[in-house]
């Protein structure tokens, strides 16, 4: 009877890591799916040159690229963009996002003082 209990305990111990591993794999697959959906959305919103610029930004400043992507998706779905944003338009958007970020940072520093 002890052997049976021991083997059952061993199976239970193996099942827990397996379930955790399976859950982690599912979460990773979900993250990958979300990232792929974002990439596809960016392909529909940006020209190739603009996509390349945003990719370069994401390598250096991933949080800035994510902020720009979020802004693009929000405005695109609200405005119903009919054409792809080119590199020059993306540059203007980046400047706009940076200016908004600087104003927000300036306001936050005054609030903390």
Automatic annotation (TrEMBL):
<dbReference type="GO" id="GO:0005829">
    <property type="term" value="C:cytosol"/>
</dbReference>
<protein>
    <submittedName>
        <fullName>DNA-binding protein</fullName>
    </submittedName>
</protein>
<comment type="similarity">
    <text>Belongs to the PDCD5 family.</text>
</comment>
<keyword id="KW-0238">DNA-binding</keyword>
<dbReference type="GO" id="GO:0003677">
    <property type="term" value="F:DNA binding"/>
</dbReference>
<feature type="compositionally biased region" description="Basic and acidic residues">
    <location>
        <begin position="20"/>
        <end position="31"/>
    </location>
</feature>
<dbReference type="Pfam" id="PF01984">
    <property type="entry name" value="dsDNA_bind"/>
</dbReference>
<feature type="region of interest" description="Disordered">
    <location>
        <begin position="1"/>
        <end position="31"/>
    </location>
</feature>
<dbReference type="InterPro" id="IPR002836">
    <property type="entry name" value="PDCD5-like"/>
</dbReference>
<dbReference type="InterPro" id="IPR036883">
    <property type="entry name" value="PDCD5-like_sf"/>
</dbReference>
<feature type="compositionally biased region" description="Polar residues">
    <location>
        <begin position="8"/>
        <end position="19"/>
    </location>
</feature>
